[in-house]
Amino acid sequence: MLYEINGSSFPVYSLLYFNHIFSGSFAQKKTTDQKVDSVLKLMTLDEKIGQMNQYNGDWAATGPITKDGDKQTQIKNGMVGSMLNVTGVDHTRTLQQIAMQSRMKIPLLFGQDVIHGYRTIFPLPLAEAASWDLKAMEQSARIAAVEASAAGVHWTFAPMVDIARDPRWGRVMEGAGEDTYLGSLIAAARVKGFQGRGLGNTDAVMACAKHFAAYGAAVAGRDYNSVDMSLRQLLETYLPPFKAAADAGAATFMNSFNDLNGIPATGNAYLQREILKRKWNFKGFVVSDWGSVGEMINHGFVKDNYEAAMAAANAGSDMDMESRSYIQNLATLVKEGKVKISVVDDAVKRILKKKFEMGLFAEPYKFCNEAREKEQWNNPAHIVAARDIARKSIVLLKNEKQLLPLSKQTKTIALIGPFVKAKADNLGFWSYDWPDDTARIVSVWDGIKTKIGTSTKLLYAKGCDIKDTSRSGFAEAVEAAMQSDVVIITAGEARDMTGEAKSKSIIRLPGVQEDLIKAVAATGKPVVVLISAGRPLVFNWIANNVPAIVYTWWLGTQAGNAIADVLFGDYNPSAKLPISFPRTEGQIPIYYNHYNTGRPAHNDSDLNYVSAYIDLPNSPQYAFGYGLSYTSFLYSDIELSKKSFKSGEKLTVKCTVANAGNYEGEETVQLYIRDLFGSVVRPVKELKGFQKLFLKKGESKTVEFIITADDLRFYNDKLQYIYEPGDFKVFVGGSSDNVKEADFRLIK
Ligand code: BGC
């Protein structure tokens, strides 16, 4: 028997279903949980398992593709709960219409890797982290959500909140760097940005904190590799950004490819059930990573997809991305009692709840609005925001004799290098190529050309390609340099050299780029090197011999304008490195918050039976928190409100910062602490606060930080999160390696 609503026919049992799920004139008001229960009651086991199944769409792939049966028929049969890599109002509507023909008419969720922008591409997440500007990062995520949701996307697989201390790992570009405190604040800011005013608003997408957990600690920086670490380290360093994302309301989590202490994260009940769902009381759902359920066979953890499905479902992985283990095996596993129906029900409830919260049951085509898609496709406000965060992400590493900023009246500037006119490389990994991108992306050439006056002559020579070993363009580049007053050389990695499955053992400039820089520098002309990359690179010769170095990462659609703003002083650089830059690959992993050891080196040349290298200093090339400005900031000594304090009391830390240079500018004042003696050893420094100060020329401001006993907590050997009375140091400065210090005591 059928009845009709809005021209669609529904079987009678659907009447019951609609009565259950809708509030309003023909149904009484129900909570979302009650609505979920009502739907669940009507579902067959196969339909429930269908909700736990996610397929890749056929338009793009972000992992190894499985070519199999007709997905559209499976959607119609209620065997699919979500699709990834299906975007655009057109495409999403087509598939949603098919889902609406299924017996239960449960809408699909469309997921997509909207990592640093959708249509408007923002700087890489690691680059944005260098801004230390939480509001700006929230805004870039917000804009990405506005654009993606207008294109039918419901769910982004972001933010990536993996702490990463190894620049060989290609995915270092996707997170917030090496620090837990900064990473946690950024995780929360991004979740808030993506989810905006809350799920259910048409411009909000569900966030997904990934990759749970410890993926960033892959051995030797090789992607997908194993992770073996103490639980203390896991809890203290790697999990807090996930907790921050959960607390900020992240709708979903994604587990990770790695095994953690011998158990693949996907089959890891300690992570997913014990920590995430029980301890943190997370109410969203967990999606596996691409194929990670089935990959537990390769790990040697399970024998086949049947065992993989059992291990993953029981461990708390609610949705299977692309491995097909659930759709092929869960029904049998339930019938055989190997996976309890309550496990399936719990997963399905979590998924349905998000679909309700997104408003998809009431309006399955809510995100399919061509007019909105068109409007957001060319929203000029997004371009303005992209330029702003791009310039905030640029790190000035070196500026001898104040070579920068350049005068807009400079007579002749030579622009040399493979990235001068590059367009798509500016976007970086995890970005989309749209048909009109060439016109939209601002290259370094475009940005500088727009910036300078008509009296300045610009010369161009490519010099070499990114990876090629040909030096045939060197002569032309040297010639251009000779004719100029100043040379700007662009160097770096291609866009596809950092990202997923892009681990590298050598992280230097590819091809003959460094030789090109040497040849041009030999002319004696003042040289500014711009480095574009998704990870910290090693570039000693340049660091030691070139007067000005600007780290531009990959800045997105507005790269060239942002770079020109910085080079010509319309924006005074303010970014600070969120990750240490090694001198050579041999120092990796290198991070500022290491332990002291029993034989610490007293300085970089101390080799007297201390923990040091005999062939290079311990210190990094550029430290965490480092970044120059065109002006200089002077820090006063630290003033403490008291020498000792008790738990329950507050300690005030004050420091005055003066702008002693010739430009107005912004400084990120960083506060670190060190617990001098603990029941377990503590890092030599830990970031515990930062504040941004904008200072006019000659201006001074006093910053004030409050420390409480809670800031001094750590995990002891019993994994209790405690503070211990004792002696501490507090440091305040503009970089982790350039600080003032003072002592205080926490008393009982
Ligand atoms: C990546 C995830 C991504 C997923 C879907 C995987 O290979 O590890 O971060 O979200 O693909 O594209």
What does this structure look like?
The chain is α/β, with parallel strands linked by helices. The protein has three domains: 31-372, Glycoside hydrolase, family 3, N-terminal domain (TIM Barrel), CATH 3.20.20; 394-574, Rossmann fold (3-Layer(aba) Sandwich); 633-747, Immunoglobulins (Immunoglobulin-like, Sandwich). Helix content is 29%, strand content 19%. It contains 23 helices and 29 strands. The strands form eight sheets. A six-stranded mixed β-sheet has the order 13-18-17-16-14-15, covered by helices on one side. A five-stranded parallel β-sheet has the order 6-5-4-3-12. A five-stranded mixed β-sheet has the order 21-29-28-23-24. Strand 16 (486-492), helix 21 (513-521) and strand 17 (527-532) form a beta-alpha-beta unit. Helix 1 packs antiparallel against helix 2 (32-42), helix 7 (134-150) packs across helix 16 (370-377) and helix 13 (305-315) crosses helix 14. The longest helix has 17 residues, at 134-150. The chain starts with a strand and ends with a strand. Beta-D-glucopyranose binds at residues 62-63, 84, 113, 157, 210, 289-290, 500.
Q: Which key terms come to mind for this protein?
A:
29% helix, alpha/beta, 29 strands, 748 residues, six-stranded mixed β-sheet, binds beta-D-glucopyranose, globular, Rossmann fold, 3 domains, Immunoglobulin-like, disordered N terminus, TIM Barrel
Total individual domains: 3
CATH-assigned homologous superfamily of the largest domain = Glycoside hydrolase, family 3, N-terminal domain
> Could you please say which CATH topology of the largest domain applies here?
TIM Barrel
Bound molecules: beta-D-glucopyranose
CATH architecture of the largest domain: Alpha-Beta Barrel
Count the DSSP helices: 23
User: Which structural category do the helix and sheet elements fall into?
Assistant: alpha/beta
* CATH class identity of the largest domain: Alpha Beta
Name the strands of the widest sheet in spatial order.
13-18-17-16-14-15
Average the pLDDT over all residues and give the rounded result. 95
Strand content: 15-25%
Which overall shape is indicated by the principal axes computed on the Cα atoms? globular
**Number of extended strands:** 29
End-to-end separation in angstroms reads 75 Å
Helix-residue proportion? 25-40%
Radius of gyration: 27 Å
Poorly predicted runs of 5 or more residues: 1-27
Largest sheet: 6 strands, mixed
